[in-house]
Design goal:
The complex is a heterodimer of chains A (117) and B (208). Chain A has 117 residues and is an all-alpha fold. Chain A has a single domain, classed as Nitrile hydratase, beta subunit (Cyclin A, domain 1). Chain A is 59% helix and 0% strand. In chain A, helix 2 (32-46) runs parallel beside helix 4 (79-93) and helix 3 (52-69) packs across helix 4. Chain B is mainly α and 208 residues long. Chain B has 10 helices and 4 strands, in the order αααααββαααββαα. In chain B, helix 3 (50-62) packs across helix 4 and helix 7 crosses helix 8. Chain B has helices at residues 2-28, 36-46, 50-62, 64-72, 74-80, 118-121, 131-139, 141-147, 184-188, 193-197; strands at 95-99, 104-109, 157-162, 168-172. The chains are: A mainly alpha (117), B mainly alpha (208). The interface between A and B is large, with 66 and 61 residues.
Chain lengths: 117, 208
Amino acid sequence: MYTTFEQFAAGSMLGKTDALPRSNGELLFQRFWESRAFGMAIALSKKGHYEWEDFRQKLIASIAEWERQHRKDDPDWNYYQRWLSALEHMLVESDLLDREELDRRTAQFIGCNSLIQ
Amino acid sequence: MSERFAYTEDREVYNTARAKALESLLIEKGLITSETVDKVLKYFETDMGPFNGAKLVAKAWVDSDFKARLLADTPAAIAEMSFPRGMAGAEGENMECVENTPSVHNLIVCTLCSCYPWPILGLPPYYYKDPSFRARAVREPRAVLKEFGLVLDDSVEVRVWDSSAQIRWFVLPERPLGTEKMTEAELATLVTPESMIGATKAKTPVSV
């Protein structure tokens, strides 16, 4: 986890392939769950379950909320965590998902030892 | 320190479980299938990405008429290319291209979130989504560019373009010197995503 932009920029310039896009355009996910969250949000909008712009507004709000509560260089920052949170709000608000149901399922997966990839 | 690490690990466990829980519930409800997310990701890996932007830039470098059209009406010029369908899909609409010259350097940023011309640049790199980068790129672009290894002469004007839902900017970098004999396909290999963000210049032939 990078602590400051300076460290990040310098580190990524030193050929850390997980930090910068590769020239052939490979995806930029540091964790498996990030790509799943990304793919779900796109797919559901594409299928018409909500407008992409509505999801974007949720994402902007989610990022703004984090920025209100943290310093900008807080290493706690994770873009896809904001994305995941925005997706949850979007699904609950659109009545596609019930938050208690999601909490229960999450707890089940956390209890499962085979979870960590 | 150990507390911090434990916290980070716990968060990863939680996020992994949360994303799995979401996907499994969506599949059970019939909103997506078990293949949907893989299909979306594959699309971004093979069809949309910085290789498209690199082709646009290389064509503009060798074809001045195309370059003029690209700058005047970017979506129409993109439509001339034989890119895969869906170029106007998620976040791909309303793209505009700005040209770097010896006297003007352009840098794109999104201060609101992370709007980005996905179809031609692929997914945004991590620094583009960093709150510090987004704030500083507007406030002190020269200092930010310096951290990317790009030192600009004081005489060069730096223009920062703030992307939004209405317009996604991308940069037409300067054609590097010593590339007169290169083909369009060879030139495309010099065009990096960073150079189309304006964080760096295009690669030079020796650094390829």
